[in-house]
Amino acid sequence: MNPRTHFRLVVLYVLVGALLLVLMGRLWTMQVLDGAHYRSVAAQNRTRDIVVPAVRGMILDDMGRPLVRNRTALVVSVDRTVISRQKDQGKAVLTRLAKTLGTTYDNLQKQIRLCGPGIKRPCWPGSPYQPIPVDDRVDPKRALQIMERQEEFPGVTAQVQAVREYPEPEGASAAQALGYLQPITQEELDRRKGLKVTGYSGVDLIGRDGLEAEYDGDLRGVPGFRKVLVDSQGRVTGTAEEKAPTQGGTLVTSIDAKVQEAAEKALENAVKSAHTQGHKADAAAAVVMDVQTGRLVAMASYPTYDPSIWTGGISQDDYDALLGKKKGEPLISRVTQGQFAPGSTFKVSSVSAAVKDGYDLHGTYSCPGSYDVGNRAFRNFEGESHGDMSLHQALVVSCDTIFYKFAYEEWLRDGATKPKKNPSDPMVGMARSWGFGARTGIDLPGESIGRIPNRGWKRDYWNATRKADCKGAKEGYPDVEKTDPSRAAYLKAVAAENCAEGYVWRAGDAANLSVGQGDVLVTPLQLTRAYAALANGGKLVVPRVGTAVVRPDGSVARQIDDPKPGRLPVDPKILAYIRGGLAGVTKSGTAAGAFNGFDFKTVDVAGKTGTAEVYGKDDTSWFASFAPVKKPRYAVVAMISQGGQGAMAAAPAVREIYEAMYGLNGKPAALKDGKLPTGLPKFRYDSTTPSPTPTPTTSGKPS
Amino acid sequence: MIGNLGPSAGTVGGYRDRGVWQRRLSGLRGLDWTLLLAVLALSVLGALLVRSATFQLLAEKGQDPEGFLKRHMLNLVIGVVLCGLVTVLDYRLLRAYVPILYGLACVGLALVLTPLGSTINGSHSWIVVGGGFQVQPSEFAKVGLVVLLAMILGEPRDGEIGPGRKDVLLALALTGVPAALIMLQPDLGTTLVFAAVVLGMLAVSGAQKRWLAGLVGGAVLTGFAVWFFGLLKPYQLDRFTAFLDPSADPRGAGYNAQQARIAIGSGGVHGKGLFNGEQTGGHFVPEQQTDFIFTVAGEELGFLGAALIVILLGVVLWRGLRIATQAADLFGTLVATGVVCWLAFQAFENIGMTLGIMPITGLPLPFVSYGGSATFANMIALGLLQAVHVRRRPFD
């Protein structure tokens, strides 16, 4: 052959050889060098994780009565992967199932189809690898039919599953304290560590509000998982790995169901009675606290609702109808989130501030019907004059003018309208020390801060509202003028004053503060905690509801400790004196009428009434108390918004609560000997077994 | 090397003296056994891999799990018969039939484009001839092309080394017709095979360098034109570039590429064992019995098995080139060269695409993949090689 051909053939030889070497090299790289990497990718290709939900833990009261538990529901589910593998795509099985369940094949078909764009409900929004629940209110007989004749229903299971239930032991609800469950949003899912969650009840619900939210991590347990092998169609061909779920821990709380019921009942009665007397009484709260530990024995909020409406999901319409403004927004816990002016109950703080500031604890003071603060007259309740009295008596009869005087004199000492560089404002500082104007730190979400106004706050407020005020000062209020010209003129004058000098801390502000009026706001919880500190000798306890988290086997997973309490900067002698004063309120003071005939021998109750004026609304009724006076155990506070006088609405409610606690006035005692149980209740904590009613085996003795 | 023609050539009378069959059969001793055995080994391996890729799916559907295997064996048997026929044929007689073969190929290719043609497995390259049989004319067109070009380019004028301008142009023009028909299907893979064959045969035929340069340049320009003027549809472009970054579209164009790599890579050194591949069993790689058969080897036989296939193909190509070197005349050399270029390019493209170094096309792996027309065409190619070998110059 010619040399050119020969040469080119040689080139071809070399080329072919090179190509083969390239292939070999690439094979080597992929299979030998990178083999491990590809193997792991291949494994991921082939497997899917299915979540097995964990049963959520219960919430119990201090005696082991379940406040929240799980109801076992019999649920019939369809396994998509098994059905789709059948010759007729499962038509025969589904038709049979439809007949057994009393529904139609069409319906079932729709229920098990996957949700997607353009597909309306019913459809399945979850993972295609999870069995799809098609009925959770199955008649047990029908479920039995399915379970007994499994060969006629391949791919169909009837299983017992857990659904949240609110048994209301002893009639106690505590809905706001307990909270509720709702589906997790996608953002929350993304933020959660661990397995991506799919599937039916339990796992994809998260606690919202209340204890369900605060202790969600303890309650929800750990879901298990199944690692299944799939082919390229996603059909399950086997199980690679399985891990059982860990049941959620049960939360034991300090709430006592019987006391809680008593508190809720007392509020209902108080509101009813206030209504009959012509008061609006739109909201109310009652708190019972152990003064030594800060644990809450009861926390009732009115209006309330039935938390079982959350189970099974709630539509927007139902939400608005049941939980909206028309119904008084029962989701809000007035105990922790209701902010109201405390009225005279605030005086325990003001009096301690005055004494610390230098006023004689045992001095005698004048209590006229009205007192001039600057150029304005501030009056006692109904302008009553009480003559001269001790501070003890001032508390008993709830004299305001003494406090106005203290406040005004302190304000003058601070420089009046031209304040000193560092004004002392003793009542403001003392209020903060009593825990007002700050969160108590209770183990519930969404606690309100309240407000103790001071000079800084006033300035900030003025900055924020100045524009509107100056506008009003300039232009007046033409809309109001149409109907009420004198009011329009008044508003214009106020606006002018605020616009020019709204930042000034005036004498009136100090005076209002001293009696818990003006811009002062407290929550019933803050007030209860303050009275607990008064009762226990000065320890600012941190309120707690949870006591411990207990595992299904009964062992304690987590003891919820009492955080270290703060200290009131008040001499214990002063506190004792104040306690003495309060003891007189119920016998000869403003609450004597409400406590007429009360069995003080069994339990000596001391307290303070409060009637807070609210602009544009009816008065807020307060009564804050502690008992027994000699060795205080409990602090009980009741508040009725727009309820009228403290003595008329709130004090009777508190009396009712004490009577229920101690078994007075013919009522059965909620607490044995009026004492709380010590230690955790004996209880069968495993809530996976289908029998729904666990039996507490203790009556309060330590376990 | 100046060839010394064998003792039987030149004595036409001597030829006619022997019996027809004696004449025919006397060539058998001259078979290239290495080549034959390599092809047989590849075919056996191919059969096993085809079974592995298909038995589970067939069983699930309730059909005969050995269905594909049986059909594959049938194809091989027919292929072997075809190969034998071509081998004993005097390849030089083919020259007379080239126009008919060429015409048939073009007609067949044209028919594919008419409504008579069918789309099977996404490629519009088939004609269904009834009785459950279908024909893929483009496979046979490759055979036709090799023989056609060998004829045109293999007979230089006296004194010249290699084809003249007229011959080259004629060759290109005649190639263009079937090539265009194939491009219209569209079948990019086979078109590229055509290009490789033309280039290789032109080079070995001794054509002047400027023709080669011109061809290569023309190809590059066409590539640019396609790119700039967007002559390819987006999906075609996607498929082409998917091999560069399959993770860019893992569910679409990149899916095949990614799954193939995963299957092969996870085979490691020893593979997961024949019929045990999990990616194969899970049907993660599509078209496994045809275009992606190599992934079965990679996953189940590991590096050892996959490399063995590459080596066996290498043996086939080496022997083919050797046959080209030892051929009795330029025509024979060119036939062998054409076959080698075809098989080499196709094997490299097929294996390369499963390994992620070449774009995805619809070319099956020669002698290993399942297929009717492809197997027949490949076996005829083998027969051509043997035919050239059998009449080789005796000294080398």
In short:
With 703 residues, chain A is α+β, with helices and mostly antiparallel strands. Chain A contains 24 helices and 23 strands.
Structural overview:
The complex is a heterodimer of chains A (703) and B (396). Chain A has 703 residues and is an alpha+beta fold. In chain A, strands 2, 3, 4, 5, 10, 18 and 19 form a seven-stranded mixed β-sheet that branches. In chain A, strands 12-11-23-22-21 form a five-stranded antiparallel β-sheet, sandwiched between helices. A three-stranded antiparallel β-sheet of chain A has the order 1-8-9. Chain A contains 24 helices and 23 strands. Chain B has 396 residues and is mainly α. In chain B, strand 1 and strand 2 form a beta hairpin. In chain B, helix 11 packs across helix 13. The longest helix of chain B has 34 residues. Chain B is globular. The N terminus of chain B is likely disordered. Chains A and B meet through helix 1 and helix 2 of A and helix 8, helix 11, helix 12, helix 13 and helix 14 of B.
Largest interface, with counts of residues having CB < 8 Å to the other chain, equals: A-B, 38 and 52 residues
The N- to C-terminal Cα distance of chain A equals 107 Å
As residue ranges, the low-confidence spans of chain A are 194-203, 688-703
Q: Which structural class is indicated by helix and strand composition of chain A?
A: alpha+beta
Q: Total helix count of chain A? A: 24
- Radius of gyration of chain A (CA) equals 34 Å
| Nearest-integer average pLDDT of chain B | 82
Mean pLDDT of chain A: 85
Helix content, binned percent of chain B: 55-70%
Tell me the structural class of chain B. mainly alpha
Q: What is the percentage of strand-forming residues of chain B?
A: under 5%
Terminus-to-terminus distance of chain B = 10 Å
Helices and strands of chain B, in N-to-C order? HHHHHEEEHHHHHHHHHH
| Count of alpha and pi helical runs of chain B | 15
Q: What is the CA-atom radius of gyration of chain B, in angstroms?
A: 22 Å
